[in-house]
Every structure is written in structure tokens, then in C-alpha cells.
Inverse folding.
């Protein structure tokens, strides 16, 4: 089980959470009480963070299985109150899922780079596949300049290194 305060010691985890919920969200996580369940209103009041930001952060974390809530109904008013708790024991699984998604995207991009021959406009920098360039008689549609062959070996190799590194980190190498 990963304790919130232990997870927050990692720069990588903090960077991930910052990207996920922003500065105010990370501030809420830092100030979130360790024990117990808290309503969004109580969290906003105790942390000084805007209620809408608190709710946005909690729902974002909930969507990643990093927070849970329990709903209680006031028998007199019928109002629902959501009591929240952070659940960072799901952090490793959440990060692995995100890395799998990134791996799929990078692998598709790597395949695209390897399976295509490219041409580029020297003036505006637009890049075309061979088929696109041929259909335009190797003239850029944007600026009517002649296209030149584009050597994408460096890009394809960088993508391969990134894909291999992620696979190794995920134990899929």
C-alpha cells in the first residue's frame, strides 16, 4: 500500500500529478488530511483552495482511481454529501496504464515513420508522405515550392529508443 505522503516524495509522481491536476490540485493533495474522509466544502475551507478547483481535482483523481468517495444523504434536507479520501495504493497501476497508452501511441508513430518515405518543403517546412507528395507533383500545397526528400532516420531512431526504454521500464522488453 502506497501512502500519499510517501508517494509525494517522488519528483516523478509530483510531475505526473501536476500534469494531471495542476498547481492548485497538487496543493490540495499536499494539504489533504492524512486520516479520515472529508467533504469538498470542508477541504476548500481548510486548505483555502477554491471549491471548484477542489471538486475538479477530486473528480480528476477519482477518474484515475486515486480518490474515492462515500455518499451520505441528509435525512432532513435530502442533500447529498460526498466524503472523499485519497487512494494512492492504485498509483502504480494507474501509472502503468498510462505508460501502456503512451507506448501504444509512440509505437504507432514509430511504425508510421518506418513504413513511409517523406518529402519536405524547404520553405515552409511542411512534411508529406511520398504518396501525398507525388499527388501534388512534389510541389508544396502551402507555398508552391518544390519538395525535397526528407531523411527521417534520426526521428525513427529516437522513437525506437523511447519505445524500447518504456518497454524496459514496464518489463515488456
Amino acid at each position: 500500500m502506497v501512502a500519499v505522503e510517501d508517494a509525494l516524495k517522488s519528483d516523478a509522481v509530483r510531475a505526473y500529478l501536476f500534469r494531471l491536476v495542476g498547481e492548485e490540485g497538487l496543493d490540495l493533495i499536499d494539504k489533504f488530511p492524512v486520516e479520515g474522509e472529508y467533504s469538498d466544502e470542508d477541504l476548500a475551507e481548510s486548505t483555502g483552495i477554491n471549491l471548484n478547483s477542489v471538486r475538479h481535482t477530486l473528480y480528476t483523481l477519482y477518474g484515475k482511481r486515486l480518490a474515492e468517495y462515500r455518499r451520505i444523504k441528509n435525512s432532513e434536507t435530502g442533500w447529498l454529501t460526498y466524503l472523499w479520501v485519497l487512494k494512492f495504493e492504485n498509483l502504480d497501476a494507474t501509472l502503468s496504464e498510462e505508460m501502456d497508452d503512451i507506448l501504444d501511441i509512440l509505437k504507432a508513430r514509430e511504425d508510421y515513420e518506418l513504413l513511409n518515405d517523406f518529402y519536405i518543403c524547404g520553405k515552409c517546412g511542411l512534411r508529406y508522405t511520398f504518396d501525398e507528395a507525388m499527388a501534388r507533383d512534389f510541389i508544396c500545397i502551402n507555398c508552391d515550392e518544390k519538395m525535397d526528400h526528407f531523411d527521417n532516420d534520426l526521428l525513427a531512431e529516437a522513437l525506437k529508443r523511447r519505445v524500447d526504454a518504456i518497454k524496459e521500464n514496464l518489463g515488456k522488453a
